[in-house]
């Protein structure tokens, strides 16, 4: 299970040598490079430069479920995730929601605009207790003028996000809901998998609604597909977690080779 901690007890690890723990992101994409996570924002910065950046922002602590920013609300700069996990999602006028990504420590959220004030085009909430550092646009602009490595980190981060959101749009348009769910389960297994006697436990809890939001389908569709996967011996429930018992078969579903057997494609 994901660890639970009090936000005020969080300590930043992003200024220390190397990438922070759990650095990366949970993204719906086919690309192995994108699944490995975005470039580390502070790569190439000196300890003095990192300290300057960290001292230029305002730290916020968030309990699980707390809103960081809302779609349509005023936007100014970015939020650097120091600890925890931030869910970023878009809500359609109909109320239907799709999760764009879960971003871990070392990443930033709040774009796509980073220097100018505007309106948020999606929302962000704390998926677990988290600590973030708000860097206003004007402050960030001044810092990138004097810290070239920070400018490169922001550019690479925005480029990575653009590639991932483009891949998400392509996946939604070309893969069936069942194939997308199979892909997501394999991705969760790679990120949170713990080997057990009967298979690989996904050691992080996601509700059927969470899975539906990440794959762009209804919760009912996810429930039906998971039931079929269970009947086929592909997975099993372990409390509030899932155990992947046959990753190879799940991969065949992802690739469309068993679509007729598992089809429940309600978008």
TrEMBL record:
State if Transcription is listed as a keyword.
yes
Alphabetized InterPro entries for the sequence: cNMP-bd_dom, cNMP-bd_dom_sf, Env_Response_Regulators, HTH_CRP, RmlC-like_jellyroll, WH-like_DNA-bd_sf, WH_DNA-bd_sf
What positions does the domain HTH crp-type occupy? 175-248
Q: What SMART domains does the entry give?
A: cNMP, HTH_CRP
Q: Which SUPFAM superfamilies match?
A: cAMP-binding domain-like (SSF51206), Winged helix' DNA-binding domain (SSF46785)
Q: Domain of life of the organism in this record?
A: Bacteria
State the UniProt keywords alphabetically: DNA-binding, Transcription, Transcription regulation
Q: Which GO terms describe its molecular function?
A: DNA binding; DNA-binding transcription factor activity
Ranges for the Cyclic nucleotide-binding domain?
41-145
Keyword NADP (UniProt) = no
**GO-annotated cellular components:** cytosol
Protein's name according to its UniProt entry: Crp/Fnr family transcriptional regulator
Q: Which organism is it from?
A: Bradyrhizobium lablabi
